[in-house]
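Hello forum,

I keep getting stuck at the same step: I have a sequence, I want structure tokens, and every attempt I make locally crashes halfway through. Rather than fight my setup again tonight, could one of you with a working pipeline run this one for me? It's a single chain of 339 residues.
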Amino acid sequence: MTRMLLYLSSNENVNTFDFLYDEHGIIIKKLSGSFSFKQFVIYDIRSLNHYNYVAIDLKALKDLDIDIIEAINAFKKMYSSRLIFYIEDIKHHEKLIVKLIDEGVYNIVASDEVNELKAEILKAISDLGISKREIQSKLSQEKDFDAIQYSTCTFVKNNIRIAVTGTQNRVGTTTMAINFANYLANNGAKVCYIEANKQKHLNELPEFYQGMTVKEDSIIYNGVKYLSLHAECHDDFDFIIYDMGIATHKVISAISKNCDAVVLCTTGKPYELKQFEQVKKLMNIDTTKHLFSFIAESDKTKLEKRYGKVYFSNYTPDYFDGDVNEMIWEDVLNPFIKR
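Reply #2:
Ran it on my machine without issues. Output:
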């Protein structure tokens, strides 16, 4: 399927993205001149849905920063195209760049060297695009970019494998696994979610959630790559999250051989605790975190007294809310951060 890019360009930078057509066959529609991005997004009646990417040369915009952010918010509600900003002089647009990052816009290309700029653009149109951690790292290296100090972290190795499994059906395993993957992506990690169970929930997601990019046997959404267990993928990631389903003997054996950590999901009804205790005993893995969902406040102390250090998930109706349980994910992540 041919990819398409719309480029709002200043007259000076009108040819910046041309190599994408010449070398990669991406169809480019160019509009050059001076634009109000807010006017273009909110009041222009043309549909942008058939464009995979909308690239914006900041030099072409006459909006104030606040108008650009308002336009981005409107754009994200209406369209699924990926936004790419070309900012020639990033040191003079520090405040705007900080706001772009806060709004989840990480595909910012800014190099003044031709080959480096081409590499950044190719990264911006890749499956996962430029990550939050990558753009923050670039900005922190700019000598004149002093007002904001970006906190970036590195990890002890690539392809850290974390399994999320449950004591039985409907204890929140898939929700927690996707939550965790989105937490990692929100914090700049390159992350992959693998559906390592027989539920085949991934097949249903693109029909329900707008903005998902489906590519053969993978789905890209909000910086996370979703794969079925047997899909081919040769990318390196910071983290691979395996949604393992129910913790059977076979699953526990696979986790102990292949994974760096495990999150065991369960619930706390009295008649369910026996199953939790059996699985807990079988899963004799030092890095296991025990995560209880759907627990009444009055029962949490009882469970802590009975089992020691355990975690309680917050109400999580949104699969892709990476922040609602961030305190749990920070603790799970802690052993893998390079200090």
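Residues 145-150 have pLDDT under 50 and may be disordered. If your local run keeps crashing, start a new thread with the error log.
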